[in-house]
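To the structural biology subgroup,

Please find below the input and predicted structure for Superoxide dismutase copper chaperone, which we are adding to the shared reference set this quarter. The sequence is reproduced verbatim from the submission form. If anyone notices a discrepancy with their own records, reply to this email rather than editing the shared folder directly, so we keep one authoritative version.
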Amino acid sequence: MEFAVQMSCQGCADAVRAALEAAPDVKLLELRPQEQSVLVETTAAAEQVRELLENSGCRAVLKGMGGSSEAPPGGAAVAALGGPGGVRGLVRFLQLSPSRCLVDGAMSGLPPGPHGLHIHEFGDLSDPCNSCGGHFNPDGETHGGPQDQHRHAGDLGNIWADSEGRARFRIEDTRLKVWDIIGRSVVVAEGEDDLGRGSHPLSRVTGNSGPGLACGVVARAAGLFQNPKRVCSCDGVTLWEERDRSHGTIPGTPAMETPSPHL
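Predicted structure (tokenized):
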């Protein structure tokens, strides 16, 4: 993972290094204070690493993600999710290898408990989550769990929201391919996905997880070292202003409570 970290002095760099070295599941690969750049290898969710960096006292933004040397090019995507009642989130996809796709996300505003997570066949948000179609299912399978042989390609199981409505998740899936889901949608369901093991008629169709609470369209994103911009060409907003806006630290700007899709 590549982060932009606002380090203004050697003390900042030392604080960032100390924060990362104290985390057992994060390996610091590169720290470049002058370029305000940090490169890490980790099994933690991107939002957890960003929070770890910011606990050092420096603002941080994820700029890119990459896999191993065998990872196919163009295998990164992102979806910004939204829904009624303030449900928001960001889900990133990274093709780690031809047979492994990483799904990394953060959600806020959810009812506490489990919620189904699925890729849907359409990227049509004209009637929010109701117009996204069924689960992405190119092989004509019945609904199942992520580990099942027979399942929809878009069946990603459940995520869990804590008592404050926040969910952080990191999933590795063997069925998804990033290039197959560009332009489709990600939907977080109202209820728990029964993974096709329930007695309800919809169990083998949707996991009986209910309607969508939040959804977003999957778009291509930057990989490692593919996102050098510091100022958005469309509105002139800097990287740090965008970060502050998403966290509600600019006066008069509401907090989004989830990271902005800078990828």
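Summary notes: The chain has two domains: 2-65+227-246, 76-220. Residues 2-65+227-246 form a domain with the Alpha-Beta Plaits fold (CATH 3.30.70.100).

Regards,
Lab coordination
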